[in-house]
Please model this.
Amino acid sequence: MRRIYLILIAAAMLVFALTPAAAADEPNIRVGLAKNKSTVSFSIHKGSYEVVEGSSGLPIGFLKEGDTWTVIEEGVLLKLPEAEGGVDTSYMGPLMIQPMGKNSEGIFSCNNVKYRGSLTIYNTDNGLEIVNTLPIDEYLYGVVGKEMGHSAPIEALKAQSLI
Model:
């Protein structure tokens, strides 16, 4: 029975890998990074990002490798001190920090921890809530290695990513 189960898993993986639409329809996963914060800082480590003001959908800034911004809760507003040209600016939010370009592979850090994908900062009644959104395979890049250790055998890592 176990052998049949393994064969079915292998067949499903093969069909999934050979289906071109599978990658295009890949689901995203949302991971809460922090909540009830009064400030959050983020830095760009790889790629270029666009900062979009969620209530209007308008871009408010562009970030490149090495750039760091801080967001401060200010009542119902999100304040970006000295974000653009040394001028304090406030927004309704949420603020969305998204990689530029459809196939952009960006890496950013939020409060000194590196992540892939995009970042959304919400202003809630209890403070800032920070959410990372990324394709599920990019999520697995980081979480499987952290759970099992990077020195685990490759077959063990593959098996863990299926569960």
